[in-house]
Specification:
The chain is an alpha+beta fold. The protein has twelve helices and eleven strands. It is globular. The relative contact order is 0.18.
């Protein structure tokens, strides 16, 4: 691949970079283009970083040392924080604690079981009521007469785990989403340790939980640290649970599930606003963000980045397929442009 010069592992955040208050938008490279009937009708710009097995930067496109909100790509770190706080989760339960689940029946059932197991009820969850994230599941859900519910919300597994450890530790449960809460302070430390850099800003995620901003390089480095962590550590336990039970991390019709199921040892987690992080078991890793948040470009960009990492598997083609329709037939595609 055509790579930028290798850089030290510790990125710096420059003043005025995208993601900082008052920053002027920079011209980011085109990562994907929208092609209809042979005509390029649009572009998706963004930033992407690829790390080599030794952690050095192999490829950098755009602003990879500027802070971004990784959104749900931070969830493995949040789950590790829950483990460090003392909650003993394993298997599907731990995978669900790191999930942006699709709201399928097996997701909702396990959230309910976890609430009961820890003496909690759904009314204590502070994630907003929502429909299933998966559109196919949402149609079935609505057809059954069901309405928006906190358990159905894609972050309910994470919130259940957070509530459970607070109840176990005797920490306040009504303020578990406060950035100053002991659990959130611990998660803040886990994010900084995994990313190898300070948290640049703290915001509020779509589910209401505190959201820590780090650079894309830091995000890739965090995923790398999870797959290389010592067996039995909180980080490795999260990575192992996610890889063993990917359907609980995402759902039956989701690229994260397909990738972790079909490529041995891969850790993968998407986030809202078209963020994606992936690590291979040898320490190679990637992270990217589509600047306009266009999730339709996520698959083609991810597939191209995986190819640059040397991943050669049929699932890469499946993930990269993003056809455009016209008159109910395929007339174009969204394709990677790097």
């Amino acid at each position: 691949m055509s790579a930028a010069p290798r850089t030290p592992e510790g990125p710096s955040i420059s003043a005025g970079a995208p993601g900082t208050p008052g920053a002027a938008p920079a011209a980011l490279p085109v990562l994907a283009e929208v092609v209809r009937s042979g005509f390029v009708e649009g572009h998706h710009r963004g930033s992407l970083v690829v790390l080599a097995a030794d952690g050095g930067v192999e490829l950098a496109l755009g602003e990879v040392t500027a802070p971004v909100f990784p959104r749900s790509s931070n969830k493995p770190m949040q789950a590790a924080g829950v483990l460090r706080a003392g909650l003993d989760l394993t298997g599907e339960r731990l995978a669900l604690a790191a999930a942006s689940h699709s709201g399928e029946i097996f997701h909702r059932d396990l959230v309910q079981k976890m609430l009961v197991e820890h003496g909690l009820d759904a009314g204590q969850l502070q994630c907003p009521p929502d429909l299933p994230l998966d559109p196919v599941e949402a149609e079935t859900y609505l057809a059954s007469g069901a309405v928006r519910d906190r358990v159905t919300m894609n972050c309910s597994g994470k919130h259940t785990a957070m509530l459970a450890v607070c109840a176990q530790r005797g920490w306040p449960t009504e303020s578990y989403l406060d950035p100053g809460h002991p659990l959130q302070q611990l998660i803040h430390s886990v994010v900084e340790e995994a990313a190898g850099e300070p948290v640049a800003a703290v915001g509020t995620d779509g589910c209401g939980a505190p959201l820590m901003a780090i650079t894309l390089t830091g995000l890739a480095r965090a995923f790398r640290s999870f797959v290389l962590a010592a067996p039995g550590s909180a980080e490795r336990r999260v990575a192992d649970a996610m890889r063993a039970h990917p359907e609980y991390v995402a759902g039956t019709r989701r690229p994260d599930t397909w990738l972790m199921r079909e490529v041995p040892g891969v850790l993968s987690k998407m986030g809202a606003e078209a963020v994606q992080a992936v690590a291979l078991p040898d320490g190679r890793a990637l992270a990217f963000k589509i600047d306009d948040g266009g999730s339709r470009a996520l698959g083609p960009v991810l597939a191209r980045a995986l190819t640059l990492l040397g991943v050669d598997a049929p699932v890469v083609t499946r993930i990269g397929s993003a056809p455009l329709l016209g008159g109910a037939r395929e007339v174009g595609e969204i394709r990677a442009a790097f």
